[in-house]
Amino acid sequence: MPPAAPPPADTPAIPDASTYQAPDPMPLPPGAPADQALWRKALDEGNSLSTVRAEAAKLQWKAHNGKYETRLTERARGKSEAEAARLKEVARKVLAAWDTNHALTTSQWPVDPTRGCQYQALQLESAMNISDGPAKSAMMAPAKEDANRCIEAAEAILGRVRRSNQDLDKALAEADAALAPVAAPASSGAPAAK
Asked: Domain map of the chain by residue range?
């Protein structure tokens, strides 16, 4: 069998895919490492806001679809007074945690809940891309102040929503445990009489 003919000279070589390096979709703007870190943190806060809001929505959906108050009230019927009171208390905790979480996620936030600190990051990035000189200095100071102020406000609301999500998740877990099927008594191992 004759050797394979080399490709014509005008045919481009197929690049080796193993060496392909995708470009960074968010390259750091030029500047001091502290300014770059501030820029990155301003962008990351927006992602964190989206994540905690999605988690809150998921928990609220579970609370809504789980019909915990109805199911726990039904489970309480026919139980001892103490057990019925415990189940009603579990239902109360779910409703209280759910109300708090819903009120918090639908209230006016100190930062835009969708965009986070993206505008402040863009303002800072624009200032970082200016050539060194008086114009850059004049833009950097207020851009850094705005970014820091936004990050501080975002972190405050993030902390509150995370705690509220944890409280609702804990209340739902307690309700799920209270609603779990009761295990049947273990058999004694003796064969049943026929």
From this structure: 29-179
